[in-house]
Design a protein that fits this description.
transmembrane, transmembrane helix, two-stranded antiparallel sheet, 2 strands, 8 helices, TMEM192, mainly alpha, elongated
Length: about 260
């Protein structure tokens, strides 16, 4: 006897409801995805921590420049250089983490927000690298002009090298504070909106179909959107192939009854 299913289809004896659900997922994979409309970009804690570290280094620089005794101001200068080098390594690892999170966001189908924040997510590493390059140039000039008298000028009050490094660090921290705040605000709004992936909102978007060129539209932007969509569908197809292979592996072979 066949038993009726909830959707009106017949269920074969010996077929578990889990296999039926898996089959439905294969027939309509996008609609059955658990991530649709609930994906969150988990980069706000990383950006907040990076800004806290930058602020802490700036405060340390101000304390060293203001309170270190004259005979130890050269030590304060080298401490700041070590902190700058360490901060660049932290920023490099931070950038790698953020890029990975944004790549996951892109593969989930959120192409518009990925493009919107593509430049902002790279600002920290670019800014810290630029600032360190400028500090390296300033340090080269200091050693070039001071030469053998460097250790004397190293303790020259507010015009000492540690003051230069601290000024650069504070300026960098201010720029990072503005950039990080704008980025965090965008990500929080995105996470609160709980939007479905762009590929599921294609019919509701003003731009229309990705296959059609709107009057006055940007050809480069259209090609970029199409490339993102192709990458998303390719990744989704790969996941479906893995799911199908897993289902085929779990299927038990059915033996036909032998006729005596």
């Amino acid at each position: 006897m066949e038993q009726p299913a909830t959707g009106g289809a017949a269920v074969q004896p010996g077929v578990s409801p889990a296999h039926i659900h898996d089959t439905d997922q294969l027939l309509d994979p996008v609609l059955f995805s658990n991530d649709n409309g609930s994906y969150k970009l988990n980069t706000v804690p990383a950006f907040s921590l990076h800004l806290v570290i930058s602020t802490a280094i700036s405060i340390v620089g101000i304390v060293l420049a203001a309170s270190f005794p004259t005979d130890r101001r050269c030590d304060a200068y080298f401490i700041m250089l070590y902190l700058r080098a360490t901060f660049w390594v932290i920023t490099y690892l931070f950038d790698h983490f953020v890029k990975k999170q944004h790549d996951n966001l892109r593969m989930q189908g959120y192409h518009d927000f990925h493009r919107e924040t593509n430049m902002q997510k790279g600002i920290p590493l670019q800014l810290v690298s630029l600032w360190n390059s400028m500090l390296l140039a300033v340090q080269a000039l200091i050693h070039h002009f001071y030469a053998e008298n460097f250790w004397e000028h190293c303790a020259a009050g507010w015009l000492s090298p540690v003051s230069y490094v601290t000024a650069f660090t504070v300026a960098e921290n201010l720029v990072l504070a503005v950039s990080h705040s704008l980025y965090i605000d965008k990500v929080r709004k995105f996470n609160s909106a709980k939007l479905a992936p762009d590929v599921l909102r294609g019919a509701d978007r003003a731009g229309g179909s990705l296959g059609l060129m709107q009057p006055g539209g940007d050809t480069e932007e259209l090609l970029e959107k199409q490339a993102d969509l192709i990458a998303y569908l390719r990744d989704h197809t790969h996941k479906l192939n893995q799911k199908l292979h897993q289902m085929q592996t779990n299927v038990r072979p059915v033996r036909a009854p032998q006729i005596p």
